[in-house]
Design goal:
alpha+beta, three-stranded antiparallel β-sheet, 233 residues, 3 helices, Alpha-Beta Plaits
């Protein structure tokens, strides 16, 4: 009887308790989509980038993450570098064995402006996808597998913030309140790309939102898509 009560308590906790993850990195790059040549980062992370970090901890075809809150803990700082890069791109179907950066014909200078010394706290919840795997696992099982990997550091792949070379460190956030240098302040960040949804035809539709930073927490208003004929979120 006592075991059944403990299991019922765990199920309730798994369905109601949000996932809280502390994310730190020396560098981060959340590229603005309108910058087609030079890479220039948003001031704050996007929902899509935070989902990518959570998926690097644990990912399954039958589940996904819903971002509830993103907190910016440290002051927004930037740095810039200019590097030699190749103008060529790998073909997914017929990849080249390697691309030479010192190839003078295809070499170019490209600038990158990124964030430095960042720290975020993300609150999210696990949601189930409808489909083949929906009967294989329950939400408490997904929650348990995620939390075990988060506490043990057994990520499925290396987490990064916007760019694979910008590795980040993740750990559980156990505090009651999130401390931020922007407590009591409000910053208007303008229209930002936040996420991508897939319609019934399998087409990926980018989602934008009017974003503000209020008391250290990101607030998203007026979700919309720039795709003709798609409905506002």
């Amino acid at each position: 009887m006592g075991q059944m009560r403990n299991e019922a308590k765990f199920v309730k906790e798994a369905l109601t308790s949000p996932i809280r993850v502390n994310i730190r990195a020396d560098r981060a790059l959340f590229t603005r989509p309108e910058m087609t040549v030079e890479r220039y980062s948003y001031d704050v992370p996007t929902c899509s980038a935070m989902k990518g970090v959570l998926r690097s901890i644990y990912n399954h075809a039958g589940m996904d993450y819903k971002i509830n809150n993103i907190y910016v803990c440290r002051k927004i700082k930037r740095d810039s570098v200019v590097r030699n890069e190749t103008k060529l791109m790998q073909n997914v179907k017929t990849p080249e064995p390697f691309l030479l950066v010192n190839d003078t014909k295809n070499r170019t200078l490209r600038g990158t402006t990124f964030l430095v010394n960042v720290e975020y706290v993300v609150e999210a919840e696990i949601i189930k996808k409808e489909g083949t795997f929906e009967k294989d696992h329950t939400l408490p099982q997904f929650y348990d597998m995620f939390m075990r990997r988060l506490y043990s550091g057994g990520n499925q792949r290396s987490p990064w913030l916007g760019c694979r070379e910008f590795h980040c460190y993740v750990k559980p956030y156990t505090g009651v309140y999130v401390k931020s240098v922007y407590a009591g302040k409000k910053l208007d960040l303008g229209i930002m790309y936040q996420d991508t949804k897939v319609d019934e035809n399998g087409t990926e539709i980018p989602l934008f939102a009017d974003t503000t930073l209020e008391d250290g927490r990101l607030v998203f208003k007026g979700w919309f898509s720039n795709v003709k004929g798609s409905e506002d979120v």
